Amino acid sequence: MAKPFTSSSPFHDQCRLNPLRSRTDVASFLTSILDALGPYTSPNGARVHLGFTATHFDEVAAQLEGFSRPIWGLASLIAGGGSYDGASRWRSGLASGTNPENEEFWGNMRDKDQRMVECSAIGYALSVAGHELWEPLSETAKKNIGNWLGGMNDKEMPNTNWLWFRVFANLGLSNVNSPRADPQRMKADLDHLDTFYIGDGWSRDGPEGIVQLDYYSSSFAIQVAQLLYSRLAQKEDPKRCEEFRNRAGMFALDFIHYFDYEGRAILFGRSLVYRFAMSAFWSALAFAFDPSNGNDGVDYSLPAPLTWGVIKGLQLRNIRYWAHTQPGAFDRSGILTLGFSYPNHNLLENYNSPGSPYWACKAFICLALPETSIFWTVEEEEYPDSLRNTTRVMKHALQITTNIGGHTYLLSSGQQCSYPVKQSAAKYGKLAYSAAFGYSVPVASLTLEELGGDSTLAISGDGEETWKCRRVTKEAHFEGSVEKQWLRSMWYPFPDVEIETWLIPPTLDAPLWHIRVHCIRMHSGDRVLSTAEGGWAVYGQGQNERALDSIQDGEDSESEGTFATGGLARVVSKAGVAGIVDLSPDVARKGQALRTDANTNIIAARAVLPVLRAEYEEKGKNIWLVTAVFGLPFDNNKTNGWMEEWKKRPVLSKELLDTISIK
Fold first, then answer.
1. Which residues of 389-528 form beta strands (DSSP E)?
2. Structural domains for the chain
């Protein structure tokens, strides 16, 4: 059968042909991204208009996002000794956007204004690239920029990572000697941000009581900000800078477990439209630790097993993943789309404007290092052997990461967004999150197909008219021995129903399986409770580019297709193998290969999900569900030989059985 036509463009062709191995290669990729913005830039340069979708904030702020966020890359390129012919667009934009008399004025800031977010990129640019983006400006323009950035110093800000944006505004103003810099305000913000620190390198995204440690606590905001500050303020604030570097060193030894051998990051939490910003921590670590600018008597050594080659590999593999294998991340003209692997508005938050995705340009911070730096001259290294086939407990994040068997994912209980976020149950409440398979988001609120219920236990109490998934997790904690730990938590989908869940990571005996145990307690009411537990959602098309066929009597077949019988379901496609098996002691669930609605999964727009389904109506009795979940991504063209692993069914350890007392 002929394959469908896939349109290409000069931009996509350039991405695929760029090896992205050297500084020149990465600078070329950034340049192509910046070039693509030219036709959408306003005459005076202050606004970039990329689309017509709305946000909770105003349109001018949305177009300011399109202007400011690419500066993370542009300023880094300049700081490292590079140049960009279109830099004048941003220089002009800084002058016109901050000029109250100019028709492209961004507007003065108010309390909790989105404009505050964009000050971080501008402050960073003034700090590292002021010689090109500040010094050529007129004294009037400099005064206007100072007044505009300094205008946030007396405004109320959200008690979150946003406070870093004001720190960078003042840091930038200080570095260009603007009288509007407020060192006292900056110190107060930094002192308060330090109260977010919870140990072992980790910071939460807010005050005590926040249980949200997503990519904002790492690559999107806090860790990157700390690392940049530690380099840029070393002379003025050495003690704090040393503390930030120490935190980063500890955090790096955890964060590396969120990346797989191919360069992909585990998909978890909000703002995934920022895409390769997920790897920005490694760029910022290189910028902060590389001694090429002189070490000032400071020890910038990396914690083992991290090496410069490892860090370079982590960063560049992630950028290559996007440039080489995810064309849907960009439209034909080279503009980042609103979505993840493809345009998908179901994923978005209400603060995602068409310019928002350019937060991804934080990944280019490594360009701030010159061609002669250690980062760019060292040979790129693969993922460390000592960290392969490992499981790691992330005690602060209430997660367990694993890459045993070659599948990198995490088990999670206890995190939830502290304020309303679209699709928060999908972004924080699922039982597991993968780097290879991604997660799914609902496209509507009725059928199971609309739900996209991968890696979750979906519950219906109204005859499957609607479904609920875990959003708020209670009483989450770790159990088990030092050598073997698991997660235990509670969830209350209805006033008369409670669900206790145990999540058990894989073992070397059954490396591609993890186990889930649920105890459902129905205390009262007349409802019939329906459940649907999902495994990993995977690409649902066959080699003939048609929907996967059902395999009859295919328990021992490695052929692509879907297979469901009794208490198991399995899906095999070019993306990998996903399966689910019922191990419950006294209930029987039915396996199904469910074709989810289009555009639920954020990686595979056409996905199939293996699920187990059942109904219960007996009150006052514990309903025990025991589930084994299988997942194997097909990377590096490996598409066979997995059946032996499939047959290695996991078992509950005696220690776990004694703890949960299944009855």
1. 391-394, 399-402, 409-412, 432-434, 457-460, 474-480, 485-494, 497-504, 513-522
2. 10-386 (1.50.10), 393-660 (2.70.98)
